[in-house]
Design a protein that fits this description.
This protein has 231 residues and is α/β, with parallel strands linked by helices. The protein is 40% helix and 14% strand. It has a 6-stranded parallel sheet, sandwiched between helices. The longest helix has 18 residues, at 154-171.
């Protein structure tokens, strides 16, 4: 690659949330087929938020991948308080091509992705019962905010995302905020209800809980609220 035409960074972030394992998604995105797809589509970075599966993937899986895909920088972590820091790396910027966030269908994660205006592929976790993740993923795609990804065919979802991006840009256009502007009092409960259009205003919002344990407490709190919202 010449100095006049340097290779742009392109990031793919995969996030599974903080409250439940999503081993199937992690396994698929580190498969040879998917990694070859990423490299062929000019991706330079793959970042995995592994949650409770972090120890297994970091010790047993990732070390075997680096020698086989040297042009793809693969990193992983367990939890983080503010996932939007990683999400913003998937935005187009100087020296960086627009990437993608592949996430479980958790309300808090989806709203974070929409807030920072990154391309989303939303994958329902089939191990979670009666949590409406499929309905949410379907609604996200219907409204043009992202693509409903299916396990076993995530690379196809990334291909479809390219066709969806223009619609997403029109429907969820970012706007500038004055430095001295007062912060908005946004209620996650009301936003989620409005997105789905299927919950009554009178429905009582969940009681706030305090995140317990170690790192990622903020993420755990958001996922707890999201799960109660969708329950």
């Amino acid at each position: 690659m010449s100095a006049e035409n340097p290779k742009l960074e392109r990031h793919c972030l995969v996030t599974v949330g903080a409250t439940a394992r999503f081993t199937q998604l992690l396994t698929e995105v580190v498969s040879p087929t998917f990694l070859d797809f990423l490299v062929g589509d000019r991706y330079t970075h793959l970042t995995l938020q592994c949650g409770k599966d972090y120890e297994h993937f970091s010790r047993n899986i990732l070390p075997t991948l680096v020698p086989r895909w040297p042009t793809l920088e693969i990193t992983a972590f367990d939890f983080v308080d503010d996932l939007t820091v990683e999400m913003t790396k998937c935005q187009a910027a100087a020296g960086r091509e627009r990437g993608v966030v592949i996430c479980h269908a958790g309300t808090g994660t989806i709203l974070d992705g929409m807030r920072v205006n990154v391309p989303l592929v939303v994958v329902p976790n089939p191990t979670l019962k009666d949590n409406h993740q499929v309905e949410l993923a379907e609604e996200i795609q219907r409204q043009g905010y992202g693509i409903w990804g299916h396990l076993g065919d995530i690379s196809y979802a990334l291909e479809q995302l390219v066709l969806q991006l223009d619609k997403t840009k029109v429907q969820f256009k970012p706007h500038s905020v004055k430095e001295d502007a007062e912060p908005l009092n946004v209620d996650l409960w009301q936003v989620t209800s409005a997105m789905l259009g299927r919950y009554a205003v009178e429905t009582p919002r969940p009681t706030n809980k305090t995140g317990a344990g170690n790192g990622g407490s903020g993420e755990v709190q958001r996922e707890e609220v999201a799960q109660m919202t969708m329950g």
